[in-house]
Design a protein that fits this description.
eight-stranded mixed sheet, five-stranded antiparallel sheet, 12 helices, 19% helix, 35% strand, disordered N terminus
C-alpha cells in the first residue's frame, strides 16, 4: 500500500488511484479493462495470436531447465494440464535422455485447489549439501511477498510442525538442519524505507518465531539485509550476511561458528560470486585501491579464504575485461570456475583454474555470435549445463564436462518459425555525445525491397541489466512472419559493457540513456529500415519509464508504445512500495539537485496534450508489489483527462511479471501484438 498522507493535495488529482484495492480505483480499472479488451479481442488477429502464443508457452518440447544438486536436476514445469506448475526432479543421467523419468515433488495446482489459494511457485532454498530439505516460497497471485514452508524432498510433503513464515518479503538461509537465518517483517519498525527487512535473526527448530535471537541489525535507511551461503569445491561453506546500504552498494560479513560476524574486505560495489580452491571470487563494480594497488572496475578478483576479513588480504586478478566487454555470470564446479564473458554483446564461456597462486582461463568450445548462459553448476560436481542461442537459433542445452573442456548437446528447442527467411545485423547509432551505441536488427530478408517495415524497438537501459540476443518463438511467429522487424538496443544504463556503461546513465546523468534510444530510432529511419509511421517501442519496469520519457521527449518518432509495469511518477516513486530502494539509480526527490532533474524527466508530471502523441498501450498488475500499479493508473487517468486516446490493461494477478501463469502470459502477448499490428501494419 502506498503512503497517501497527502491524498488531498490539489497538485495531483489522481492520488486516489494509488489505493491498490480501493473500490473507486478498481472500478476505474474495470472500466478501462473492459474498454480496451473489447477493442483488442474483437480484432480477428487476437484469437490467432493467443492460440499461437499459448501453444509456444505450453509446448511440451521446450527445454525443462533446472538446477543440479546431489545428482538430481530439479525443475519447475508448467503446461496446459499444470497451469500453476509442477516442481519435480530426475536423476542427471535420466535428464540427459529424450524422455526423463520425473518424480513430482509438489503439484502447485493441487495445493492451490486444496487450500483455496492462488499459489504461484517462487522457488526453493535447499539445505546443503544434498538438499533433502527445502524452504518453499509460495506467492499469492505472483507478489514478491511469499509464505515460506519447510518441505521434505524424500516424502514429497511439507514438514509437519516444520519451519513456516507468514507472507512477507522474507529472505532465509539454512544455518544448519535445525536453524534458519531469517530476515523478515518482525513487526512495527522492522522494515526499511523500501519495505524490506533489515534485521536478521537465528530461528531454532521447535521454538516460536518470536523466540528467534538477533544476529544482525542494519538501519531503516538501508535497502535490505539478507542472509546467504557460499559453498566451495572443497566442502567449505560460508554463512554470509549482506547489508545493502543502497541498491548498488553492500557490506558483507561472514559468520563464525560462534555466531559472531566479521566484515569481509571488499569495496562497496562488489558481488561475491563463489569459492574455488580456497579463493573467494568477487567482481568489483568500481575502481578499488588497496595497499597501493588499484584494480579497474569490472574486474574479477580473488582473495584467500583465510584472509577475507584481513585489512589487506592478498588480492589476485582473475580477469580484467576490456572497454567493450563484461562478465555476465560466474559459477563454481569441482573442476574449475566458469565465466560467461561478453565481447560486444556476444558471449563465450571460459573455464578458470587456479594453481600456485595463478589463475588460467580456457575457452569452452561453444558456438560464436550469440548468447551463452551458465544454466546450472554445482561445487560438488565436475559437470555443468550451459546454453547457447541467438535471434535465429533456438536454444541448445549442453552438458559441459569441465575438466575435459568438452561439451555435447543434450536438449534443443525445436524451431518455432522459419529462420531461413530472416537476417540479423548488428549496427551502431551515434548518440548525442558521440558515443557509439550498438543494436541488433532482426527482419525478413525481403523487407529492404518493400521499403520501411513495421518495426518493434525494445530496450531497458538501467540497473546494469544487459539485453542479450535471444530466440523468441512468439516474436518469430507473431511479428517476423507477419512482415515485421525486431530491434534490440544496447543503450547505456545497462551492463553490456560493464559497470561504466551503467554508471554513465545513473541519476542526473540519465539523459544519455534516452539520447541513446532516440539515436537508435533516428538511425533506423535514416537507414530506411523503418519510419516514424511504422515504428513502435516497448519496455517494461525501468523500460516502462523509458517508454514514458520517449512519449514526452520525442513522441513524433513513434506510432506505438507498449508501456509495461512502468515507473512514471518520478516525484513519488520513492514513496511507493519498493521505490525507495531505487534512489541510487534514479536520484532522490528529497535531494534538490536530483529532484530538479526528476521533475524535468518525469513522464507523469510532463504529460501534455499534443497532436503527435502515439496512442500507447499501458499494462500493469494489481498484484505487483514491486512497481506500484498507481504509476500506470495515474498516467492513464491523466491521458483521459487530457482527452488523449490510450489503451489500458491491468491484470489482477501476476506480480511484477504481470502474468501468474502461461495462459495469462499468452493473453498479454496476444494483446500486445494485436495492438502493434493495428498501429504499425494497418
Amino acid at each position: 500500500m502506498s503512503r497517501i498522507a497527502d491524498a488531498a493535495s490539489p497538485k495531483d488529482p489522481f492520488l486516489w488511484l494509488e489505493e491498490v484495492e480501493g473500490a473507486r480505483a478498481l472500478e476505474w480499472v474495470r472500466v478501462q479493462n473492459a474498454r480496451s479488451l473489447s477493442e483488442l479481442e474483437a480484432d480477428p488477429r487476437y484469437a490467432s495470436n493467443y492460440s499461437r502464443a499459448l501453444a509456444i508457452a505450453e509446448d511440451r518440447s521446450r527445454i525443462p531447465y533446472g538446477r543440479l544438486r546431489g545428482g538430481y536436476i530439479y525443475s519447475f514445469w508448467q503446461d496446459e494440464s499444470h497451469v500453476r506448475g509442477l516442481w519435480r526432479r530426475t536423476r542427471l543421467e535420466s535428464y540427459e535422455t529424450p524422455e526423463p523419468q520425473w518424480e513430482v515433488l509438489l503439484d502447485v495446482d493441487q495445493l492451490a485447489a486444496v487450500e483455496g489459494r492462488n499459489w504461484v511457485f517462487k522457488g526453493a532454498t535447499a539445505l546443503p549439501p544434498q538438499g533433502e530439505r527445502c524452504l518453499i516460497s509460495l506467492s499469492d497471485g505472483g507478489k514478491d511477498a511469499c509464505e515460506v514452508r519447510e518441505f521434505d524432498v524424500g516424502s514429497c510433503a511439507f514438514v509437519d510442525g516444520g519451519f513456516q513464515l507468514p507472507e512477507a518479503k522474507s529472505h532465509v538461509a539454512w544455518q544448519d538442519r535445525d536453524t534458519l537465518l531469517v530476515a523478515t517483517d518482525w513487526g512495527q519498525g522492522s522494515l526499511t524505507e523500501s519495505g524490506y527487512p533489515y534485521i536478521i535473526k537465528a530461528w531454532r527448530r521447535g521454538e516460536p518465531l518470536s523466540a528467534a535471537h538477533e544476529v544482525f541489525c542494519g538501519r531503516p535507511q538501508d535497502v535490505v539485509a539478507t542472509p546467504g551461503s557460499i559453498e566451495g569445491d572443497r566442502g567449505e561453506r560460508l554463512l554470509v550476511v549482506v547489508c545493502a546500504r543502497t541498491f548498488f552498494t553492500s557490506e558483507y560479513s561472514v559468520m563464525a561458528p560462534d555466531g559472531s560476524l566479521g566484515r569481509i574486505t571488499a569495496p562497496g560495489r562488489a558481488d561475491l560470486l563463489g569459492l574455488y580452491q580456497g579463493e573467494l571470487l568477487l567482481r568489483i563494480k568500481q575502481d578499488w585501491t588497496l595497499a597501493g594497488r588499484t584494480w579497474r572496475s569490472g574486474s574479477l578478483l580473488s582473495m584467500p579464504l583465510a584472509e577475507i576479513t584481513a585489512a589487506t588480504p592478498a588480492i589476485r586478478q582473475v580477469l580484467a575485461p576490456g572497454s567493450r566487454e563484461t562478465i555476465e555470470d560466474v559459477a563454481v564446479t569441482a573442476a574449475g570456475a566458469l565465466v560467461a564473458l561478453y565481447s560486444n554483446v556476444r558471449g563465450r564461456i571460459l573455464r578458470l583454474t587456479f594453481a600456485a597462486g595463478v589463475w588460467n582461463a580456457t575457452p569452452m568450445p561453444l558456438p560464436d555470435n550469440g548468447a551463452v548462459s551458465i544454466i546450472t553448476a554445482n561445487e560438488g560436481s565436475g559437470v555443468a549445463q550451459v546454453s547457447y542461442e541467438n535471434f535465429l537459433t533456438p536454444a541448445t542445452l549442453y552438458r559441459l564436462d569441465v575438466a575435459q573442456a568438452a561439451v555435447r548437446p543434450i536438449k534443443s528447442l525445436p524451431p518455432k518459425f522459419d529462420a531461413s527467411r530472416c537476417s540479423v545485423e548488428q549496427l551502431e547509432a551515434v548518440s548525442k555525445d558521440g558515443t557509439r551505441v550498438p543494436y541488433f536488427v532482426v527482419r525478413p530478408k525481403d523487407l529492404p525491397a518493400v521499403g520501411p517495415a513495421p518495426t518493434l524497438l525494445y530496450a531497458y537501459g538501467g540497473f546494469e541489466v544487459s539485453m542479450l540476443p535471444a530466440y523468441s518463438g512468439v516474436i518469430g511467429q507473431l511479428w517476423l512472419e507477419q512482415g515485421g522487424a525486431y530491434v534490440l538496443a544496447n543503450i547505456r544504463g545497462g551492463g553490456e559493457f560493464g559497470p561504466a556503461w551503467h554508471e554513465a546513465g545513473r541519476k542526473t546523468r540519465r539523459q544519455v540513456v534516452y539520447d541513446d534510444f532516440i539515436a537508435v530510432a533516428e538511425d533506423l529511419a535514416a537507414r530506411g529500415i523503418t519510419s516514424a509511421r511504422r515504428l513502435g517501442i516497448e519496455g517494461g519496469s525501468n523500460g516502462g519509464l523509458l517508454m514514458g520519457v520517449m512519449l514526452t521527449q520525442r513522441p513524433e518518432l513513434f506510432r506505438a508504445a507498449v508501456v509495461q509495469v512502468p515507473l512514471l511518477d518520478m516525484l513519488r516513486f520513492d514513496r511507493l512500495l519498493a521505490g525507495a530502494s531505487w534512489v541510487d539509480e534514479y536520484g532522490s526527490p528529497a535531494v534538490p539537485e536530483e529532484r530538479a532533474w526528476l521533475a524535468r524527466m518525469s513522464p507523469y508530471q510532463n504529460l501534455q496534450r499534443r497532436e503527435d502523441f502515439p496512442r500507447p498501450f499501458i499494462l500493469t498488475s494489481t498484484k505487483d508489489d514491486r512497481v506500484h500499479p498507481g504509476h500506470a493508473r495515474k498516467y492513464g487517468a491523466k491521458l483521459e483527462s487530457l482527452g488523449m486516446p490510450f489503451l489500458y490493461y491491468e491484470n489482477t494477478e501476476g506480480g511484477h511479471s504481470a502474468a501468474a501463469d502461461q495462459r495469462e502470459r499468452a493473453r498479454r502477448l496476444a494483446l500486445e501484438f494485436t495492438y502493434l499490428a493495428r498501429r504499425l501494419v494497418d
